[in-house]
């Protein structure tokens, strides 16, 4: 019942809450109705992801949120998860699949799921990548999202060598390339989250 109270205080639907934790909505529903018990791993995820006091989750003692966090705190910690990044981004972010909650999220960030192993082991297939729309100067070593010449968003590390710009994968199985006129920077990666398996 306390997990449901916390979810309602955060203003999230069961679907949004379950998705941000990497669990299915049916499992969350079972926990909220008392038919299922939350695992210790889930309690840790709730504490780290939403700032919910773990002791309060276990036995109801203490404040519900750490450091007296206000119930409106998650609004600044939620990033729209995009299915695709349209050419008109960021003016038009396109379809928002759902929102992901991330602690200490810089304002104005978005999220997208990474597909492929170009940035492995730093970023793996299925990781959620949090990025800030491109607005500041890139530095050599930053991981950026670019639209390639076919309009697909890809992740690469921004590198400068001998005054030449290269976009390099972290996976040594793939080669770096020089951006051309069809390559447009979308944003700079600020965080990466792996799905919590429960």
Compute the average pLDDT: 83
N to C succession of SSEs: HHHHHEEEEEEEE
* Main structural class: alpha+beta
Measured as a percent range, the helix fraction is: 10-25%
Widest β-sheet, arrangement of strands: 2-1-3-4-8-5-6-7
What is the count of β-strands? 8
* Percentage of residues in strands: 25-35%
Principal-axes geometry comes out as elongated
Major sheet: 8 strands, mixed
Radius of gyration: 19 Å
> Poorly predicted ranges (pLDDT <50, ≥5 residues)?
68-75
User: Count of helical segments?
Assistant: 5
The end-to-end span amounts to: 19 Å
Oligomer status: single chain
Write up this protein.
Keywords: DNA-binding, Transcription, Transcription regulation. Residues 3-57 form the HTH cro/C1-type domain. The chain is elongated and about 60 Å long. The protein has an 8-stranded mixed sheet. α2 crosses α3 (25-32). It has helices at 2-10, 14-21, 25-32, 40-50, 54-59, and strands at residues 78-82, 96-101, 110-113, 128-133, 143-147, 153-161, 164-168, 184-193. A hairpin with a 2-residue loop joins β6 (153-161) and β7 (164-168). It has 5 helices and 8 strands, in the order αααααββββββββ. Helix content is 21%, strand content 25%. Mean pLDDT is 83; it is low at 68-75. It is an alpha+beta fold and 198 residues long.
Task: Provide a quick synopsis of the model.
The chain is 21% helix and 25% strand.
Name its key features.
198 residues, 5 helices, 21% helix, elongated, Cro/Cl family transcriptional regulator, DNA-binding, Cro/C1-type_HTH
